[in-house]
Design goal:
Elements: E1 20-22, E2 27-28, H1 31-40, H2 51-55, H3 66-81, E3 85-96, E4 105-117, E5 124-134, E6 140-151
Antiparallel strand pairs: 1-4, 2-4, 3-6, 4-5, 5-6
Length: about 170
């Protein structure tokens, strides 16, 4: 019987500068998502939750909270870029280039811009990438540069965390 340990994601060694990752999931933003995130973060700008107020603004409708857009695009990128991360080191040059509305579906893609060994942690490397979010029409809605510290394949820190069943191994 072959055991496939709980593991997902790429390690430092798996990345090469210039590689582009189209992250596999898209996510449609609902009114509840936007309202919940806006209330959770105490963002009191009415353009995010008051349809009557937002109708008078230039776009004429509720705009999705930009913090939600950042969080969503970041989350969409994790499966490829930082599933094995131990630290986020930086986000720079965040640009919100197109409004996002309730009902939009968001996608993300990243390009590896650089990588180097960690000087302080021999079990890790540092990856730099540029990530952007796209809506369903292909409009770029957001972009940034990100630096993250990833485990190397032989790092022990992300291995062996799955619990051992008290009843023993699974049986067919």
């Amino acid at each position: 019987m072959t055991l496939h340990e709980a593991r997902i994601g790429k390690y430092y060694e798996d990345f090469e500068p210039g590689a582009i990752y189209q992250h596999p999931f898209g996510r449609t933003i609902s009114e509840a998502d936007n309202t919940w995130f806006t209330l959770l973060t105490l963002n009191t700008n009415q353009n995010h939750f008051n349809a009557d107020f937002a109708a008078r603004a230039p776009y004429g409708r509720i705009i999705v909270n930009s913090g939600l857009t950042v969080a969503l695009v970041l989350g969409l990128s994790v499966i490829d870029m930082s599933q094995t991360a131990l630290l986020n080191l930086a986000w720079t040059d965040i640009k919100l280039t197109h409004p996002v509305f309730v009902g939009d579906t968001v996608y993300a893609e990243s390009i590896v811009t650089d990588k180097r060994e960690s000087k302080s942690r021999p079990y890790a490397g540092i990856l730099s990438c540029r990530t952007r979010g796209l809506n369903q029409d292909g409009e770029e809605i957001i972009s940034w540069n990100r630096t993250v510290m990833l485990y190397k394949r032989d790092a022990p820190h992300d291995k062996g965390y799955f619990p051992t069943a008290k009843t023993g191994p699974m049986q067919p």
